[in-house]
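Section 3.1: Structural characterization of target chains.
Under the original work plan, the team committed to producing a structural model for every single-chain target entering the pipeline before any wet-lab resources were allocated. The record below documents one such target. The sequence was received from the expression subgroup and is listed exactly as submitted; it comprises 216 residues.
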Amino acid sequence: MKPRGDWSAAVDLGRLKERRPEAVRAWFETYFAVVHGFVRRRVAAWPSLADDVTQDTFLAALRQIHEFDPGRGAMLPWLTYIARNCARKALRGVRPEEAVEQDGGVEAFPDLAAGPLPEDLLDRAETADRVHAALSALAPQHQRVLEGHYLLEQPLTQIASAEATTVAAVKSLLHRARLAFKAAFEAVAQPAERATTRRGPADRRSDDAREGAHDR
């Protein structure tokens, strides 16, 4: 079963958080293929790592499943975020001479408007929740193409086949999806920024007074 950006009806989150075997099995079966494919591309030069990293990803996710909130973002971006960390940890121990030569990956984009999911943005823990929430706010088709191209690093031809359209149409759809993501990401970020800037000199004086009282 292939997830389509939203929380899959095949997975019962409440029972999954209770570690019910049938719920864990349904969750694993729903997302295994897509996560394994993502991991294979992350460790492409060391293909023997793919199975272990995928297993580590699901084990780490299950340990943290009580923290997952579908209101803050979809399951697939959350799993790929964990998979990135597991892959990075696994790659620290590999030897360069064991690498298998691979073709280049997807191109990098210089800014959010041109490419909303650059590597540094996806890997930054403090922005991960905003990225996931922004993705969840998009139209399903926009979610799918962004997840496919940026999170799963699928070639445009594969995305076009899945969407039953042409590569040219996918490129146009990606452009619109990037703009939609930029607007959604900025909307998600604004409340946090307002909360930060709301603290003025009076707040700082109050903090200083409390610290002084504590020192005395």
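The first helix runs from residue 13 to 17.
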